[in-house]
Structure formats: C-alpha cells, structure tokens
C-alpha cells in the first residue's frame, strides 16, 4: 500500500480530527487514515438511529473533509506492527513516519449468566451491526435495557417515543449515576415515565433466561422481566487489545498511556480519543469518561505536534462535560458533582436556583431551568455545574465549562457581564448562572 509521512489508525472523531489537524499543521506531508469500517458512524448519533433518524444511513460520518484535505482513506483491519510498518489482516502493509492511534472503544459487556443469548445486543458502532440491531428493534415490542447511563437512557427515550414497551434497569439508586447528582437523575426518570417507560433502579440483574425467542431477565430480588430483546448499555471500554498489537504501554482498564502531549511509550507514535487513558482534571486520577469533545481536543493537539511542538499547551485532563435530552428536558453537567466532591473529601459549597429561560415566563416556549453550581469552600473557584431545562442548557453548560477551565470564582461570576433577550434568556434579574452563584455566596457567608 506504500509509505506515508503520517498515518492515523481509526476513523472516529479523534482519528478524523487528528488527520485534519495534521494537514493544517503540516501541509507538505502525505497523510493516510486507516479504518476498519467502510462506512463510519457518528458515535453520538447512534441512539437516534432507532427512531428519530429514519435509518442508519442518516447517521453516516461523511468523508468530505478528509477527501478535501487530501487524506488517503484505507479500509482494512490492522493486525500488528513491526517497527514503522503496519500489517493489515489481508496481508497489505502500510509504512509510516508518524502514527496516531485513535482506535477508540468497544461496548462493555456484563458478567451475567445467559448473556450469550442471540437476542442480546450491545451498543456497537459499526454500520452493518447497527442495521441488524435496528431491524431487531423494529421487529420487537417489549424491550429491556440494562444500564441507566447516557446511552441506556437515550435509547430508552427513543424507543418510548416510538411507542415500544420499554423497561430500563439500573443497579444504582438513580439514573445517570456516574455523572449527575440524584435529583437530576430523578428528573430523567420522571421524563421517561411520562412517556410510558418503566424504570427500575437500585437492583441488579442476576441472569438472563430464554431460548432466543422468549427472553427475560431475573433480578436479584427474584422478580422477572420478560422481553423480546435485551440491550446491554453498560458503557464502553478502551480498545486495549489494539494497544497490545501496536506494542505501546497501556493500562488494561483505562487505555493507552500518554504524556501531556499525547505521546505514547513508542517513539513517533501518539494516541487520542477513547483509547487513551485520560486523567480527571481535578485529581489527576484515571477516569473512564469517554467524550467526543475530549477526543476532538486530543486529536487537535496530537495532529498539531507530530513534527515538533506547534501548540505550547498541555492537555490538562478530562473535565467530563456531558449533555443529553430526555423527553422534552435537556440535562447537562460539567466538572464535579456534589456527590463526587463529597466522595473526594473536597471542601465545597453549593449554589442553586430555579428560574425560567424566557422573560416574562408567560412567553411561548418558556421552560423552567434548574441550575446547581459547586464551589471550592476555601478558594471559591467553580468546580462543577449541573443544569436541567430547555434546549438552551446545551450551550449554558459549555459556558460553565469555560468558567471552570479559567478558574473563575463565585464573585467573578456574580459580576459577569452578559446579554439577555426576552425570547432567548432568563430575565437579567433572574439569570440562572448568576443567581446560582449568588445563592452559593450567601450560603457561604451565612454558614
């Protein structure tokens, strides 16, 4: 297949962004991107191929940007590496001078008896698999989802909208347990139940029973849930199997080990995206948070610095900014939750407020918006934020993410200059972020 200056291994967001960033930074270099699938998917759009999107084809990640940038796309499965030669499963070979590993993550499985049943699906990312998956859902009425994180909740929301009979089981006491405080997880539960979804929390699935036509799950309390198919939505794990084939150091649980510039243990080899062992931006400890936004940031940094440090900025860890929409309610989080701050033994205080995202509140389309901010008790820096409400939540959380990254304090937020409009924002007297910060300040001073 020939030799290239830069080879990207992986066709997801991190791989594509690495290739585009490399082209912008090193215009004279030859670049190739190797991916396993002929047709790549938008990872974040996968839950919506089951109802909102008319077909899996509407979630295809286009090659337009890569083609315009002169990036050679090679479809094939890489089986190993010898020095600076990549070996493909069909005996082709691709040489490189610089290599970026962006081979992503794999759907997590659960050690549940009976999980080999053919009517059990995980949330895979390949085009052909998703086509089979969607057909199985289209042919089913009763659907059981195991796992109440973002993927499980979003699929439950989609299938409930499609008038399927959906049950979602989460072993923790509330939905979205790893990233949101219980009151926000309870909001997600309320929205799902409004649509007819049955939500079961605080209990484990002991085993799955059935012969492929009739399937069910037995809970630890002895109750049984019958279904036509079972979806395991237990998150994702880094593709460390590929890391072994690439001969780079990796943590078996968290992924490829990199330095602050995303350089691996092997010379001239970088890594970005879900396959990387990312660190929490507050504690420095490894985190399993896998986000497209993080993958894109890592891809930009890796691609820019392949032949020397162009971007004099270290990657400061993963902030973990998430957003989703359940029913008609958007939920979002960035940084630390109150639960996480408490578990880490961080001194903190909370500011929160409920308001409306238009003013006056009787305007059409006005939605209640709840804001919760977590501040460091001694330094007053913003540590985390959670919001629920209308669609404006999606951009509000991004603003709060920037505040955290710039180490803004409660008083700096209180004196922030901002714009308002009756149809677009809360009242200037009831601006949610400002009022939540003021609420926290008053609690701190009156403690």
Protein topology:
Layout: E1 3-9, H1 13-25, E2 31-35, H2 64-68, E3 72-75, E4 78-82, E5 85-88, E6 93-101, E7 105-107, E8 120-122, H3 127-138, E9 142-146, H4 150-161, E10 165-170, H5 182-194, E11 198-201, E12 205-210, E13 215-219, E14 224-227, E15 229-232, E16 236-238, H6 240-245, E17 250-251, E18 255-256, E19 269-271, H7 292-304, E20 322-326, E21 329-335, H8 338-343, E22 348-356, E23 368-376, E24 382-389, H9 393-405, H10 410-414, H11 432-445
Parallel strand pairs: 1-2, 1-6, 2-3, 6-19, 8-15, 9-10, 9-15, 10-11
Antiparallel strand pairs: 4-5, 5-6, 7-16, 12-13, 13-14, 17-18, 20-21, 21-24, 22-23, 23-24
Helix pairs in contact: 1-7
């Amino acid at each position: 297949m020939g030799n290239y200056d830069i080879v990207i291994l992986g066709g997801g967001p991190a791989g594509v962004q690495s290739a585009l960033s490399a082209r912008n930074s090193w215009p004279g270099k030859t670049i190739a991107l190797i991916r396993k699938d002929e047709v790549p998917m938008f990872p974040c759009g996968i839950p919506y191929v089951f109802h909102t999107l008319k077909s899996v084809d509407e979630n295809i990640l286009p090659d337009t940007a890569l083609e315009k940038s002169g990036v050679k796309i090679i479809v094939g499965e890489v089986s190993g590496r010898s020095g600076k030669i990549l070996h493909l499963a069909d005996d082709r070979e691709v040489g490189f001078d610089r290599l970026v590993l962006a081979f992503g993550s794999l759907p997590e499985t659960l050690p549940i008896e009976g999980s080999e049943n053919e009517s059990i699906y995980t949330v895979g990312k390949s085009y052909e698999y998703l086509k089979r998956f969607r057909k199985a859902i289209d042919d089913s009425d009763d659907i059981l989802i195991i796992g109440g994180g973002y993927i499980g909740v979003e699929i439950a929301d989609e299938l409930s909208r499609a008038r399927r009979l959906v049950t979602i089981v989460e072993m923790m006491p509330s939905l979205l347990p790893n990233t949101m405080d219980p009151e926000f997880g309870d909001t997600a539960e309320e929205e799902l139940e409004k649509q007819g979804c049955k939500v079961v929390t605080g209990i484990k699935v002991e085993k799955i029973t059935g012969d492929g036509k009739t399937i069910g799950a037995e809970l630890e309390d002895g109750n049984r849930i019958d279904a036509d198919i079972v979806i395991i939505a237990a998150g994702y794990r880094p593709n460390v199997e590929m890391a072994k084939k690439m001969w780079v150091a990796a943590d078996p649980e968290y992924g490829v080990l990199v330095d602050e510039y995303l350089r691996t243990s092997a010379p001239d080899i970088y890594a970005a995206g879900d396959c990387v062992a990312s660190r929490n931006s507050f504690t420095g400890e490894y985190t399993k948070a896998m986000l497209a936004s993080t993958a894109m940031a890592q891809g930009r940094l890796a691609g820019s610095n392949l032949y020397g440090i162009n971007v004099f900025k270290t990657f400061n860890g993963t902030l973990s900014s998430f957003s989703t929409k359940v029913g008609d309610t958007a939920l979002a989080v960035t940084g630390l939750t109150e639960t996480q701050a408490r578990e880490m033994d961080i001194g903190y205080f909370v500011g929160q407020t409920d308001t409306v995202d238009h003013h006056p509140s009787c305007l059409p389309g006005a939605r209640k918006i709840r804001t919760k901010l977590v501040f460091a008790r001694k330094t007053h820096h913003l540590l985390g934020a959670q919001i629920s409400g209308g669609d404006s939540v999606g951009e509000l959380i991004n603003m709060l993410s920037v505040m955290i990254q710039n180490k803004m304090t409660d008083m700096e937020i209180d004196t922030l200059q901002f714009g308002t409009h009756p149809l677009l924002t809360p009242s200037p007297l009831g601006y949610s972020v400002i009022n939540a910060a003021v609420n926290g300040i008053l609690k701190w001073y009156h403690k």
